[in-house]
Amino acid sequence: MRKNETSQSENIRALVLESLLMTDKGGKSSDIGNSVLFKYAYLPKVQRAFYTRLFEGVLERQITLDYILDTYSATKTAKMKPAIRQILRMGVYQIKYMDSVPASAAVNEAVKLAVRKGFSSLKGFVNGVLRNVIRQPEKVKWPEEGDAVRFLSVMYSVPEVLAEGILNEYGFDAAKAFFAAMNEPRPVTVRLRGDTNAVKKSLEAEGVSVTKAPCAENAWYLSGFDSLTELAAFRNGGFAVMDAASILCAESAGIKPGDCVLDLCAAPGGKAFYAADIAGESGRVDARDISEKKAALLRENAERLGIKNSDISVHDAAVFDESLAGKYDVVLCDVPCSGYGVMGRKPDIRYRTESFRQPGLVQLQRRILINAARYVKEGGFLSYSTCTVGRYENDDNIDWFLKEYPDFVLESMRQLLPGRDETDGFFMARLAKRGK
Questions:
Q1: Residue 166 included in any domain
Q2: What angle, 0 to 180 degrees and rounded to 10, lies between the N-to-C axes of helices 103-116 and 82-97?
Q3: Which pLDDT tens digit goes with each residue over 135-145?
Q4: Among candidates 157, 177, 159, which has minimal Cα distance to 355?
Q5: Measured between alpha carbons, how far is residue 188 from residues 29, 63, 166, 254, 396 in Å?
Q6: Three-state SS for 187?
Q7: Which of helix, strand or coil describes residue 331?
Q8: Are residues 93 and 133 in the same domain?
Q9: What is the pLDDT of residues 342-367, one digit of tens each?
Q10: What local confidence, expressed as pLDDT, does residue 217 receive?
């Protein structure tokens, strides 16, 4: 057995702590978490699940955890040493949100971590704060719903500027449901390909539970597996990982067999390769993205899925390509966005921006949208989409576009909202280009 190959729980907690400290340095939590799990893939499933739950949970509940800690500690979290702050957050998260962890164990392991990181002099502080959290739960005075922004921020761990933005757009009840849904576990959702019954049987033969997702005809939930990439149906291209919202977007784009389709911001390829399946052997999909790294991911997924009718290349969607003008039956335009609709899958997104409204991002979206429109044939379709929920990146862009480009007409538009719809937060609009 290798030195690191151990079942002692404090070593998993040490991995969580180091990962959280990396996020303090500006790392993306999803990248950090995935890289750690890849490196320690030999660990038992239960330990990897513990790592994921604690790492992502602390990130997700950071504002709430700090609110609790600031109630009990004379030294506020903002003034604490980074390692002590993260150790205390981990302790409180286990006490409040992980029923499988005895409260005493959460405290004891936190003290061990403090010593392990060279803070023996602070072990009494760590022990005292966490034991008071256990002994005096009534000491925490939660914000009242009447103070709506503060309530949403603290109870659902989102910055106040984001809480205020969603509150203003959707109202208190919808905002509350939205943020609550963002803090719930997100199921692995896939699109089955080919003979769906055969794919289901293959998955079930490996102990995977396959259940129908409610929002899209070809969306399914998978659970009960250890590693997704080890499943035969994954390796053989039997399914593509896609949320129901992305599946609905591809299905609503107006793609038909034989169509020529362009996906401008295609990585990792979910919608592009669904388009390729719909277009069939007589159709073609050109999938583009801004970097070779993203193009490599597209090629890897295309190979696994056995996609033969696609061409993958590197191109900046914000830069017009004259050679493609008027060539496509359908153009997919899933633009870079704030990503608030997928906070449940990427906990760091909620803390990434300083403002709910980002004018620079909207301007980029409009540049890409203008280029996308110029690639559509007369009588063709333009599909504009984002994985966010703010009107300024969605409805407002469509309203602006229709005023600027009267040769397009809006055929359909839909905003999906977690807490109301059983999907990620997603916006999609289909625009048809008039013929002469």
A1: yes
A2: 170
A3: 999 999 999 99
A4: 159
A5: 18, 26, 26, 26, 31
A6: coil
A7: strand
A8: yes
A9: 998 888 888 876 666 788 899 999 99
A10: 87
